[in-house]
Design brief:
Layout lengths: L5 E5 L5 H10 L3 E5 L10 H11 L3 E4 L13 H22 L2 E7 L22 H16 L3 E6 L2 E2 L7 H11 L2 E5 L3 E2 L2 E2 H13 L2 H5 L3 E4 L6 E2 H11 L10 E5 L19 H7 L6 H9 L1
Parallel strand pairs: 1-2, 1-3, 3-4, 4-5, 5-10, 6-9, 7-12
Antiparallel strand pairs: 8-11
């Protein structure tokens, strides 16, 4: 007798994390990968019937409104996607006994602790984006059920044009000097590694996961400032000969005013995840080397 492979519903399949998840999840079962307009998280009346019809064993939600500065003016949109939809997805998952995996952010913290954050540290977001993601977490926790909230940090992918790694590479080919902030510190996290570790979790099976549901920090090993991260990107650039940037100059966040305030030291301590699952994301520099290889 053969086990029927699990049905896995993946949202936002074209996002930087969704794209990697689609590939990492395929060996585990039947992956139903959707994207807007097939599924529009701002319109629950359209996606609730769809989920009920598909009856997945897992719902994976890497979808988010992530335009941090724009969220300050598009508050309702940020809340609908990051908070309201997350709670509804958790409810639907609970009703059908599915495992729900949702990704959150280091931006739920104000960055004033001065050391990597633990899961139980107080959350005090500084901007609408962080606030909307925190509301999403709380909505999921209120529903209960077999849920995983994976808080991550500084996710990047070389496929995404606008991401930090690609921006630094682009600037290095256009400017002789780059200025990078030394006072914003986080865990650079390669989207592919985050997808791979999610797949390893799911491979352990529904029963195993149900007993360990909850909130976990999951981000690249160690932490860096934007300045250190940019230095590593230029060092590991396979086309270094195309760079015209001779140096990177240190700067402070206060020199670059933005609509949304950002936490300065928002690195995450991932030891709870590591000890619970005996899995770890590699050091951020190792992952960056692989991503750029």
């Amino acid at each position: 007798m053969h086990n029927i492979p699990s049905k896995i519903l993946l949202l936002a399949k074209n996002g930087q994390l969704g794209w990697e998840l689609h590939r990492s999840l395929l060996p585990l079962g039947k992956v139903l990968a959707l994207e807007t307009p097939q599924i529009d998280l701002e319109k629950p009346e359209t996606f609730i019937p769809l989920i009920r019809e598909l009856k997945p064993a897992y719902i994976i939600n890497p979808a988010a409104y992530t335009a941090v500065d724009l969220a300050e003016t598009e508050q309702e949109r940020a809340r609908n996607i990051n908070a309201v939809a997350a709670g509804i997805l958790a409810e639907e998952a609970q009703k059908m006994g599915a495992v729900f995996i949702h990704y959150s952010t280091d931006y739920v913290f104000d960055g004033k602790k001065g050391a990597p954050y633990l899961e139980e540290d107080e959350t005090t977001p500084l901007n609408v984006y962080g606030e909307s993601k925190l509301q999403g977490e709380r909505g999921i926790q209120a529903v209960g059920g077999s849920h995983f909230i994976l808080r991550t940090s500084w996710v990047y992918s070389l496929r995404q044009q606008g991401g930090f790694v690609n921006k630094v590479l682009q600037w290095s080919r256009q400017q002789t000097q780059l200025r990078m902030v030394t006072d914003q510190i986080g865990n650079p996290t390669w989207a592919r590694m985050l997808a791979e570790i999610t797949a390893l979790l799911i491979a352990r099976g529904e029963g195993y996961l149900r007993e360990r549901a909850g909130l976990y920090h999951l981000a690249g090993g160690g932490f860096a400032s934007r300045f250190e991260w940019a230095q590593a990107i230029l060092e590991l650039d396979p086309q270094q000969q195309e760079q015209i940037a001779a140096e990177i100059l240190p700067a402070l966040t206060s020199e670059f005013p933005t609509p949304a305030e950002r936490p300065l030291f928002s690195a995450l301590d991932c030891s709870k995840f590591e000890s619970t699952f005996n899995l770890t994301l590699p050091p951020w520099r190792t992952a960056l080397q692989l991503a750029m290889g």
